[in-house]
Amino acid sequence: MTEHGPFDEGLQAERTLLAWRRTALSFAVASLMGIKVMADAGVAVVVLGLAGVALGGVAYVVASARYRTAHAQLVTYGTAPRPGLALAAMSASVLVLGVACAAYVFAGALP
């Protein structure tokens, strides 16, 4: 096995990277759609939507970097690092999207 080849035949690390990328892109697109739908609720909602897009992008980049680190560590030591930073960015993206949705709901409830 070469260092640039897959760690195992099942390609678990590669499938995990693809899942993280899909999820990060989904949150970025959901944030963009939230901006489009909730733009009339005010500037704060647009700012929160843009923050969601940015956090989705951060999660995408961090997941890619984590894959490279995990692959190197799997090949060298046989163990994988924990997904702390990517998980934190994705959690923040979900939180921002939820706050934007709540702001839209409450803005519609106000006279």
Automatic annotation (TrEMBL):
The keyword Transcription does not apply. Keywords: Membrane, Transmembrane, Transmembrane helix. This is DUF202 domain-containing protein. The keyword Transmembrane helix applies. Pfam families: DUF202 (PF02656). It comes from the Bacteria. It comes from Demequina muriae. The chain crosses the membrane at residues 41-63, 84-107. InterPro entries: DUF202 (IPR003807). Residues 8-70 form the DUF202 domain.
